[in-house]
Design goal:
Length: about 525
């Protein structure tokens, strides 16, 4: 895999002083573009399109992608095409590639199946390819990418069922067995060299869904009974919002499906096929990504796939097997069953940590930031986010949550002395807590500056160290949390175990964030919290 892009970056490193341009097809669902655009919108980066596309609300004429006749791709810094453009339009936009172009061209290649080596695709400066494998070779402009999570998916998986209340079952609801792939005008890399296909259907050897169905499901069914419930493609939702999403996604949006995920223990998310490395002959999984994989993670449904490390599956940020998902070894499937049997609590841990990992690393905002970083393009908004990410006391884009996550809402407009005394009591109780290394304390602030909030916490920590020899660096983890988007707050709230009540609180923030629905603890009964 060619991951060294420093040479390309040296000649393609513009400041984003111009907008971004997307080419979209009328009536065609482009999920990878949508996730990326939602991240740009959250960052405040302007972007345009050749058409109005992806309606946001059924009752308005607001679109995510907006057409402006005064803006063309020549006016922009980055021009993005989805692979569906290549399938539906079959030709590049007029004058996209020319000797004096001042923009970066990007192809979002999330096509199912094996990587195409068509020479005309090498015209793009970057080709963000899903389904990558660390043991395979790709065209020089290919970079590793994934499907990820859009705001639509995050909205449907916002409120999840507590794990102990979920139905103990393994969802197995594949509609496509991945046994065939259709190609047109395509160049594929095979063991003997390259194969040109004018038009045809490829029969796939060793599809993962078939292997799992025949070999793995019979082994695990006695501890996780399979549930083969599927939704009716043609049955449209009656709610106007869900109908809009059902229509725009090409009948892929089903509220009942997300509800099913959220109330189930686990989901089989196998996809693609097992093939052989051209050089070593070892088994690899080069085609693997699916929406089911990301939807399952976001829903807190334990996600089953193959062992990514063993089979070379590559993501920009890798998950950890048996922490974020369960990856089976196809040579020893019984080991997976035995491990779950021997450690009944492991499924609940994977459910929580897998969901947190997916949202933190593959929601729209981190996806957009990663995209810009890979292109070497930075904006003032990005630099601001990166500065926050580097400050241990301030909120970062990936808050260090632990097994026990608590939040406080101090009234920062109250007297400084009273504020510091209350925060000192909270920190003293947690610093002496028997499970302090498993605790993260989030301190909300919204009516003071970052500097003032940091100064107050530093002062409290110093007082505890000087007067009582209590070092907060030994635990718990303490983070300030301020301005977040609605989606980020919703994701964060779902990971909190409770709120610590104070005498002087920011009641306005508690109400607006619905934090009053969290379990409440007084400073005196914090020791009742168990890990």
């Amino acid at each position: 895999m060619n991951s060294d892009i420093s040479k390309s970056q040296s000649s393609l490193k513009p400041a984003l002083d111009r907008p971004i341009f997307f080419y979209c097809c009328e009536g065609v669902y482009s999920p990878v573009s949508i996730c990326l655009a939602e991240g740009f919108k959250e960052l405040g980066i302007p972007f345009y399109s050749n058409i109005n596309h992806w309606k946001i609300d059924p009752d308005t004429e607001e679109y995510l992608f907006c057409y402006d006749p005064s803006v063309t791709h020549h006016d922009c810094s980055i021009v993005i095409l989805d692979f569906r453009w290549m399938i539906n339009v079959k030709s590049f936009p007029d004058n996209l590639f020319h000797s004096e172009q001042k923009y970066i061209t990007v192809l979002l290649d999330d096509m199912d199946g094996f990587t195409l080596w068509n020479p005309h695709l090498e015209k793009f400066a970057f080709r963000f390819r899903t389904h990558c494998n660390s043991k395979s070779i790709y065209p020089s402009n290919c970079l590793t990418w994934v499907f990820g999570l859009s705001n639509r998916i995050l909205r449907e998986t916002l409120k999840i069922e507590k794990f102990e209340n979920r139905k103990r079952r393994l969802i197995v609801n594949f509609r496509n067995d991945h046994r065939q792939l259709r190609y047109n005008q395509s160049l594929l890399k095979v063991r003997e060299g390259y194969l040109w296909i004018d038009s045809g259907v490829m029969t796939v050897d060793n599809p993962l869904r078939q292997i799992a169905g025949e070999q793995f499901l019979p082994l695990i069914q006695h501890i996780l009974p399979p549930d083969n419930t599927t939704e009716d493609f043609d049955k449209s939702p009656s709610d106007s919002y869900h109908y809009l999403q059902w229509k725009q996604t090409g009948q892929r949006h089903y509220p009942s499906y997300y509800h099913h995920l959220k109330e189930s223990t686990a989901c089989a998310c196998f996809g693609g096929a097992v093939t052989s490395n051209h050089l070593t002959g070892e088994p690899i999984v080069e085609w693997w990504d699916s929406w089911r994989f990301w939807e399952s993670l976001a829903a807190g449904c334990v996600t089953f796939h193959v062992d990514f490390d063993k089979y070379g599956v590559q993501l920009p940020v890798m998950p950890e097997n048996w922490r974020h998902y369960i990856g089976i070894d196809l040579d020893n499937m019984q080991d997976t069953v035995d491990r779950i049997t021997d450690d009944p609590g492991i499924l609940e841990k994977i459910s929580g940590e897998g969901r947190q990992w997916a949202i933190e690393n593959y929601g729209p905002l981190p996806t957009a930031l990663r995209f810009l970083e890979m292109l070497g393009c930075y904006t003032p908004q990005l630099e601001k986010c990166q500065e926050k990410e580097g400050e241990s006391e301030a909120l970062s884009l990936s808050i260090k949550l632990r097994e026990i996550n608590l939040i406080v809402f101090p009234d920062w407009l109250h007297s400084e002395e009273s504020l510091c005394l209350e925060l000192e009591r909270v920190m003293r109780a947690l610093t002496t807590h028997p499970y302090k290394v498993n605790i993260t304390l989030l301190v909300h602030y919204s009516k003071v500056s970052d500097e003032d909030a940091n100064l107050a916490l530093s002062s409290v920590a110093m007082n505890l160290l000087m007067e009582e020899d209590l070092d907060v660096s030994d635990g718990p983890e303490i983070s300030l949390v301020g301005q977040l988007s609605e989606i980020q707050w919703q994701a964060l709230m779902s990971s909190l175990q409770g709120r610590i009540m104070l005498e002087y609180e920011d009641t306005e923030a508690i109400a607006s964030l619905e934090a009053g629905n969290l379990s409440s603890y007084t400073i005196d009964n914090l020791r009742s919290i168990k890990y």
